[in-house]
Specification:
This protein folds into three domains: 5-206, P-loop containing nucleotide triphosphate hydrolases (Rossmann fold, 3-Layer(aba) Sandwich), CATH 3.40.50.300; 217-395, Rossmann fold (3-Layer(aba) Sandwich); 422-449, no CATH class. The chain is α/β, with parallel strands linked by helices. The longest helix is centred in the C-terminal third of the chain and has 18 residues, at 385-402. The chain has 18 helices and 14 strands.
Length: 449
């Protein structure tokens, strides 16, 4: 049965705004969530970004709030990051153009003055990150007595970011009688726990299996021995500027992000690339995201936290320059492409130490990521000594993590024993080098695999 937005009990103003937004048919999460939310049920939605989950709760919420009323908020939407909070607020604005509702957006990193002024004017909806919300609540700027709806978006990220005690604090200050909605991309133990504290007999809706990447995203894995070769591969891929027209490059640290940004900046010019990470000021980040959204720039280099919730349509490619160590981030990262009904490509570069996380990701998503051979004209650089050492050490640590009895190729005693054994057998030792400590061997093994 084909469901259309007209099938929901939404009013004309909202249906008009949906049509203006260009949404033709509801996505799966919208089909499943809108009716129970309108019926007043608590809902737990397991859905990734890119599935249309924001509209799935914003639309029925707007329908229930209808028009401005009193001074105090009737809905509170909590988001782990300011970027996601901004996107939720954008959705609200988009769908409430024909309604008379007041929304206030609260997040940290900026002075609270404007936010306080907005609160003093009265509002119907607050979209907030937990910390700033609590600060302003404790200062007496927010009265919770009229609250009817509490939404927690990306609950898994909230838990990852350590917001659990803040969430409990919020739950202490909201009225008991209210409707609760919780959305999460993955279902971890902590999410289950917070859901238990938060929801009453919820309707559980799962749109894809747990942590399954959207089907519209095609995935590729390249095994790349080192950082310089990763850069060469990036350069090779980006030659195709028609296909790679709007690309997010994910890096695991600020340092790598700055490096990759430096390279792209030199190669394609500063008008084509921006970088976002935690050391960039709030305004710089917003400007960069907007420039990327509007298509002004071709490349956005980002770390995971900075890119959380980033909602840009028509992202052609997500490149995982590094494999995410928080493996759930893989699903979030590649969810930036192939949004709603579009197609997208996610390409992951993995060095030998990162294979460990690839395996874990494959278990999580219950699929193997198709491997592609490095294209012939990508120059494979020799791994410099330091990088070889780092990679070998990481692999050692991974083995130790999985097997506490593992002593490690780098283990000094073992090395000395080996040397003694060699001496006994009449072998004259060379000076210690990375080669003799087995590092080279690992590099080779990787190359052949
Ligand atoms: P979300 O999963 O909420 O982050 O939404 C992902 C993207 O899909 C956003 O850009 C939405 O505007 C878009 N979107 C959500 N629902 C629909 C729909 N029914 N039709 C077309 N686009 C949609």
């Amino acid at each position: 049965m084909q469901v259309s937005f007209e099938d929901f009990k939404l009013n004309k103003q909202i249906l008009d705004a949906i049509a203006e937004a260009g949404y033709k048919e509801p996505t799966e999460i919208q089909q499943k969530a809108i009716t129970p939310i309108l019926a007043g049920q608590d809902v737990m939605g397991i859905a990734q970004t890119g599935t249309g989950k924001t509209a799935a709760f914003v639309l029925p919420l707007l329908m229930k709030l209808k028009y401005a009323q009193g001074m105090d908020p009737r809905a509170l939407i909590l988001s782990p990051t300011r970027e996601l909070a901004m996107q939720i607020e954008e959705h609200i604005r988009l769908f409430s153009t024909n309604l008379d509702l007041r929304t206030v957006l609260l997040y940290g990193g900026l002075g609270p003055k404007t936010q306080k002024e907005q609160l003093e004017k009265g509002c119907d909806i607050i979209v907030a990150t937990p910390g700033r919300f609590l600060d302003l609540y404790l200062e007496g700027y927010i009265n919770m007595k009229s609250l009817k709806f509490l939404v927690m978006d990306e609950a898994d990220k909230m838990m990852d970011m350590g917001f659990i005690s803040k969430i409990h604090r919020v739950l202490e200050v909201v009225p008991r009688k209210r409707q609760n909605l919780l959305f999460s991309a993955t279902m971890s133990e902590l999410v289950r726990k917070i859901a238990g504290d938060f929801l009453a007999f919820p309707t559980v809706i799962e749109v894809t299996e747990q942590a399954t990447p959207a089907k519209t995203v095609s995935q590729t894995l390249y095994r790349v021995p080192n950082l310089k070769t990763k850069i060469n591969l990036l350069q090779h891929l980006f030659k195709d500027d028609e296909a790679f027209h709007r690309v997010i490059v994910f890096c695991k640290t600020k340092e790598v992000a700055d490096n990759v940004f430096g390279f792209l900046d030199r190669k394609y010019g500063e008008d084509n690339v921006r970088v976002i990470h935690a050391n960039k000021g709030q305004n710089t980040r917003i400007n960069s995201i907007n420039a990327f959204k509007s298509g002004e720039i071709r490349f956005l280099v980002a770390t995971d936290v900075a890119a959380r919730g980033l909602d840009v349509s028509n992202v052609s490619h997500v490149i995982n320059f590094d494999v995410p160590i928080v493996i759930e981030d893989y699903v979030h990262r590649i969810g930036r492409t192939g949004r709603a009904f579009n197609k997208g490509d996610a390409i992951t570069f993995a060095n030998p130490a990162e294979e460990y996380y690839v395996e874990k990701i494959e278990k999580l998503i219950r699929q193997s990521i198709p491997v592609s051979e490095l294209p012939e004209d990508v120059f494979v650089e020799k791994t410099p000594f330091d990088e070889r050492q780092t990679i070998a050490r990481e692999i050692d640590n991974q083995k130790k993590k999985d097997n506490p009895d593992f002593k490690g190729a780098f283990h000094e005693k073992k090395f000395v024993i080996k040397q003694k054994e060699a001496l006994k057998s009449g072998f004259k030792p060379k000076k210690t080098t990375a080669k003799s400590s087995g590092v080279k061997k690992k590099g080779k093994k990787f190359k052949n695999s």
